[in-house]
């Protein structure tokens, strides 16, 4: 069976790893509906990277509300009518909250999350992109968002570690863990085709792809 067995694909990974780029390429290749995070619509985000302690809670809640709306729209999709590719997994939202909120804020966030949480369809496949810290830093610095220039290397390291722990235990959907260090999925058509063949060849619920 080919890619047609995957009606709902999620691409995940830490900031700078290239998840949105890959989601868009997969969406174009499959003729799929795209469901993408919109950080530009989060008014607190630039302030967050200037003063994380002060703006952590409003930033996290803004992302939560956005994701709730997106997942609610996903519930209305006829997943059998066409594929959907997303660049976020709703269930990983608390990962950021645990990282940036203090104890009192996290309790408040958890209460709101529990009350707002909607049941998203389970992905047919999660593609979890990984990269070394130096690669993440370089990719973030190369992007055009001025406020991301203030992201501390330590924050990116802690975030990557949280992602690793999250997906170590994640078992709700099949996961393809992709080491993106030697892949240029944005500009190299051969690398993208190589990944597509690896996806098509998946036979178990957790597999790894590491281009030599």
Topology:
Blueprint: E1 8-12, H1 19-30, E2 33-35, H2 45-50, H3 52-75, E3 84-86, H4 93-100, H5 103-116, E4 125-130, H6 133-142, H7 153-169, E5 175-179, H8 189-200, E6 206-210
Parallel strand pairs: 1-3, 1-4, 2-3, 4-5, 5-6
Helix pairs in contact: 3-4, 3-5
Helix count equals 8
- Report the portion of residues in β strands: 5-15%
CATH class bucket: Alpha Beta
Low-confidence stretches: none
Q: What would the CATH topology be?
A: Rossmann fold
The strand count comes to 6
**Strand-pairing-aware structural class:** alpha/beta
Widest sheet: strand ordering: 2-3-1-4-5-6
Provide the domain count.
1
Q: Biggest sheet, open or closed, and with what strands and sense?
A: 6 strands, parallel
- Computed Rg: 17 Å
| Backbone shape | globular
* Average residue pLDDT: 89
Tell me what the CATH architecture is.
Answer: 3-Layer(aba) Sandwich
> What percent of residues adopt helix (DSSP H or I)?
40-55%
- What is the distance, rounded to the nearest whole angstrom, between the alpha carbons of the first and last residues? 26 Å
User: What is the N-to-C order of secondary-structure elements (H for helix, E for strand)?
Assistant: EHEHHEHHEHHEHE
């Amino acid at each position: 069976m080919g890619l047609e067995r995957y009606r709902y694909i999620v691409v995940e990974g830490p900031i700078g790893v290239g998840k949105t780029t890959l989601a868009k390429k997969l969406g174009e290749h499959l003729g799929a509906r795209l469901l993408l995070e919109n950080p530009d619509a989060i008014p607190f985000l630039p302030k967050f990277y200037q003063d994380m302690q002060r703006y952590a809670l409003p930033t996290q809640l803004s992302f939560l509300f956005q994701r709730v709306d997106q997942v609610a729209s996903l519930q209305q999709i006829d997943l059998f009518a066409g594929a959907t590719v997303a660049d976020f997994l709703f269930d990983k939202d608390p990962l950021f909250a645990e990282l940036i909120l203090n104890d009192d804020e996290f309790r408040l966030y958890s209460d709101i999350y529990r009350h707002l949480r909607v049941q998203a369809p389970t992905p047919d496949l999660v593609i979890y992109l990984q990269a070394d810290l130096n690669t993440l830093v370089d990719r973030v610095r190369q992007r055009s968002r001025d406020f991301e220039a203030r992201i501390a290397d330590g924050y990116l390291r802690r975030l990557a570690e949280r992602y690793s722990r999250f997906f170590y235990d994640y078992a709700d959907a099949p996961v393809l863990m992709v080491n993106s260090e030697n892949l240029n999925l944005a500009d190299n058509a051969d690398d993208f085709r190589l990944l597509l063949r690896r996806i098509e060849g998946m036979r178990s619920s957790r597999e790894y792809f590491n281009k030599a």
